[in-house]
Write a structure and sequence with these properties.
A hairpin with a 7-residue loop joins strand 2 and strand 3. The chain contains 2 helices and 7 strands; from the N terminus they run E-H-E-E-E-E-E-E-H. A 7-stranded antiparallel beta sheet has the order 1-7-6-5-4-3-2. The protein has a single domain, classed as START domain (Alpha-D-Glucose-1,6-Bisphosphate, Chain A, domain 4). By secondary structure, the chain is α+β, with helices and mostly antiparallel strands.
Length: 144
């Protein structure tokens, strides 16, 4: 089977710098209780959703107004039966591309592939987080 990372793209009527700055403000669009920082290279932050989801991310690549990459350095998805740490050592990639009066944001969770136990549920979750929460924050400026 060919590995196929989860990927989704959204298009917004905002500049690349506005999109870039919104991505870095994780507590406004992913989880209000984000612990740590997500603004500059080597920053680390933790996301928790009750006792169901824990993940620690490290900002490992940043190209202003073009790209942001997080490495998931630790994870625990308590709802999984087999490997609760499936996210560990995966990467979350945001690629920003200007298009005349719009900006395209391509989101890829590298290592989140269909053969993973968590894939179906996480695919649904990322669709909400990226297509709804992040899209809303970028377009309206209103946090979740």
């Amino acid at each position: 089977m060919i590995r196929q990372n989860y990927t989704v793209a959204i298009e917004v009527v905002k500049s690349p710098d506005e999109v870039f700055n919104c991505i870095k403000d994780v507590s406004k669009w992913w989880n209000k209780e984000c612990e740590g920082s997500s603004a500059k290279l080597n920053d680390e932050f933790i996301i928790r959703h009750g006792d169901v989801h824990y993940s620690k991310q490290k900002l490992v690549e940043i190209i202003p107004y073009k790209k942001v990459v997080w490495l998931v350095t630790d994870s625990k998805l308590n709802w999984l039966e087999k490997n609760k740490t499936e996210w560990t050592n995966t990467k979350v990639v945001f690629e920003i591309t200007p298009n005349v009066d719009k900006t395209t944001l391509k989101f890829t969770h590298e290592g989140l592939t269909p053969e993973k136990e968590c894939y179906a549920k996480v695919e649904q979750s990322w669709n909400i987080v990226i297509k709804d929460w992040l899209f809303n924050f970028i377009t309206t400026g209103k946090p979740i």
